Structure formats: structure tokens, C-alpha cells
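Hi F.,

I've been meaning to write this up properly since the lab meeting, where we talked about keeping a consistent format for the predictions we share between groups. The idea is simple: the sequence comes first, exactly as it goes in, then the C-alpha cells exactly as they come out, then a line or two of notes. No screenshots and no reformatting. I'm using this chain as the first example so we have something concrete to point to.
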Amino acid sequence: MTMRNRFITLTCAVAIAALLASTVTVRAFDLSKMLGNPDQDESLDTFKLIHVKDLAGAIADPKSGVMVYDANHPDTRAQYGIIPGAHLLPSADGFSVARELPADKDAKLVFYCANTHGMASHEAARRAVKAGYKDVSVMVDGIMGWKDAGQPTAAVTNPNASKS
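Output, unedited:
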């Protein structure tokens, strides 16, 4: 291969690499915006993701002080029940932080919704973080994962009501 061919090959490789690198950073949609973080405020992404086993352990430990919040739609609550003792949010994005969440910003809060595909719990958790709460988690398995793991549920007499 001649020096000229090597130069052309190298130039093309660099151009392709640059094109691929720029393509990777361009997104057809922005997941952060879809999940309620339109300005990509990293401080709103500080909640933890936990699973059934983690939440069940925290609930079983009376010293944990965990407060559980159900961000499900009333139909989901009626069909699957709720985690016993969970506080029912009227909606994931329209609840009153002052009325529904504790005054203590260090309280241990865990939000859940229907399942791993639901984002209501993420939205509720983001609202809590934005309001200044420091120990916020989302139980990503949702009530369906909770039930699938054999954990107890409670029926809701009025699935539309919030319970504090």
C-alpha cells in the first residue's frame, strides 16, 4: 500500500470515527425529559433504586423508619392492592408535597408504582428530591413484583383516597 493510500485510509477512518462519536451523543428523544427532568438537573436524579427484598427488609426492621408511598392509579390499587401501611398519593405528579410527605427532610421515603415499566414512582421520587428530601428510593418492581415475590398486600376500601 502506498503512502498516499495509507493517508487516505487513515483520514477516512478518522472521519468515520468522528461521525460515529457525534452520532452517539445525538438522541432521537431525551429520556430525562420524558421522566420529568426537562432541564437535565442532575440533582433530581439522586434517588436510589431498590427491589422487593430491600423494601421488605426495611419494613420488617422497626428501627428503619421507612415511609412507603403508593403512586399507582386507583384502578391498579383496586386490582393488586397496596403494600400494607403505604400512604396513597392522589397522583404521581400532582400531590401536595407539604400535605402528603413528612416535614422531616431526612425521612426515609420509598415510592412504588405498578411494575418495572411504570414511571409514576420515579416522578413522585423526583418531586420529593426537588422538595429537599435526602433519602429517597424507588422500589422498581412495583406492586406486581411485590405480589410475585409473595409479599403481603392490603385491599383498599377507597382506592381514590390518599391516606397519610
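Notes:
The first strand starts at residue 48 and ends at 50.
The chain has seven helices and five strands.

If this format works for you, I'll send the rest the same way.

G.
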